[in-house]
C-alpha cells in the first residue's frame, strides 16, 4: 500500500477476536458498551457469550421499547424487568412482542408497578418455555377478581410452559386466595424458591378446621395455612427457599411448616414477623438443621435465647440477620461466632450489643470460628474503639464489608485500625460517626502538648506497597487489653488510602471532616459509590479532588454541603463520565449553571436530586434545560 506521496504504508494487523474479548473482560459493563462503539471487531467481541450471561434489561413500557425487544431477539438468553404496564393497547402489544421475539429465550420476567389484565398475561405465559423466574409481586389487578386461571384450558397451556419454573415471587398481593394460589402453583410443579412476603395469610383463623376432608373448600378471599402446607408438602423434594416476611405467621404456624416430613430448607426469611417467639425459633432449628441463610430481623419478641438456639442447631449457617431485634443482648454471640461456616452477620440496631462477646467468639481456634466477610453493626451505640480494634485484628484476612453507621462512640483510633488491618475492604460505612476527624483519615496521631504540630505516620499515602507495622499481639489472636490499645496509639498506622480496593464509602454526617483529609485520602480508582452528605466544612476543593481521583464513581451524594458551589461542579463534571446518580439536595450555592454542566458532561445521569436548592427555580430551570431533561433518556429529577 502507498499513500498520496508514494510512500509505503504498513498495514496494522487486526487483533484476533479472542484477544479483544480478553481485553474487554477487564472492563465494567458500562465501559464495555462504550468500547463496542470503536469498530466492528470490538462490537463483536462485546457480544461474546461470556459477557451475555445473566443479563437483565430493565425499561418502562413505552412505544420505543418495542424496537428494543426486537433487538433482544438476537441474544441467546436474557431476563426482563418491564415497569408500568397497564391494560391499554400499547402494553398488550409489548407483551405480545415479548412472546414472539423472546419466548424461548427469556429466563426471568418481572413486572413491577404494573396493572395488567389476566388476558394480557395469559397470552404471554404459554410462549415462555424457558422461564425460570417469574415475579408477580404487587400485581393485584390479576388476582382481584379471583378468576385468574379459572379455566382448565388456560391452566393446561400455562402448565406446559412453566413446568421448569424454579422461582415464583408473589409478594405483597392483597387478594391472593386459596383458589388462585392453588391454580397458579399447580402449573409450577418444581419450585425451588417461593416468596409470599407481605401477603394476607390466614395463619390463625381456619373456618374449616375440624371439618371432614371432603367438606373442606378453598377460600376465595384469603390464602390459608392449610393450602400453604399442602404446597410445601407436595413440592418438598425441590423447595429449598421460602420467604414469609411481613406476614402474621404464629409460632404454631411456623412449627406446622417446619415439621413437614422430608422438607429440607436452605433459606428462610421471616423479616418483620412480630408474633414469633424464642420457642418458635427453637422448634424451627430442631426441624430444619440444614438452614444456611436465615433472616429473623425485626422480630421484636426474640431474645438472646433465639441466638443460642441458632448457634447450637445450625452448624451449616452462612448468613444470619438479627437486625432490629431489640431484645437481643451479648449473650449467645460468642457461641454464634464459633460457627465456622458463618460468613455474613447483621446486628444493625441491636442496641444492647457492645461487641465484647463477638470478640470472645472469634478468639477461639482459627478452624472453629466464623470467617466473616460481611459485618453490620449499624446503630450499635455501645460499640467502642476497644471492640473495633479487636475485630479488625481478628477479621483482617476475610472481612470485605463493614458497616459502623451511627456508632457514635467510634473515634479516629478505630479508623486507623481499619486502615491498618482491613486492607481488603470493599465496602466501608462510617456515616454519623461524629467523633471521626481528619487525623483518623490521614493516619496521623495527635500529641496534645507537642510544639511541632501534627506528625505524619510512616505509612501515610500507603497504597498497598508496604505492610503496616507488626504489633506484638499480632502473632496469636487474643483478647485485647487497654495496654495493647495504648501501644497501638504510639505506633504508626496507615491512612485510609491503604484501602485501595474500596468500591463504596460512606462518610456522611461526620462534621469534623474537612478538605484537609478528603483531598488527600479519597483517591480510589475503583470507587463506585461515595457519600459525603452533611459535611459542612468541605468545599469545592474536595469535590474537584474526588472527581479527579475517583473516576469510576456511579453514585455521589453531596446533599446539605453548603460549601459546594457551581465552581466545584464545573471542575468535577468533566471527569464524572460514569456518574449515574447525583444528590445535591440542600446545596444552597448550586444554580442553573450546574445543571448545564452536568447535562453536557454526565450523559449517563439517571437520578439528579436538586430539591431544596434555593437558587434553582422550582420549575426545573430555563426552557433549554427543561427541553434537555425531556430527551430520549431523561434523568429522574427530585
TrEMBL record:
The keyword Protein transport does not apply. It comes from Dissostichus mawsoni (Antarctic cod). Residues 165-355, 495-617 form the F-box/LRR-repeat protein 15-like leucin rich repeat domain. GO terms for cellular component: SCF ubiquitin ligase complex. The lineage of its organism: Eukaryota, Metazoa, Chordata, Craniata, Vertebrata. This is F-box domain-containing protein. Keywords: Leucine-rich repeat, Ubl conjugation pathway. InterPro entries: F-box-like_dom_sf, F-box_dom, FBXL15_LRR, Leu-rich_rpt, Leu-rich_rpt_Cys-con_subtyp, LRR_dom_sf. SMART domains: LRR_CC. GO terms for biological process: SCF-dependent proteasomal ubiquitin-dependent protein catabolic process. Residues 14-53 form the F-box domain. The keyword Acetylation does not apply.
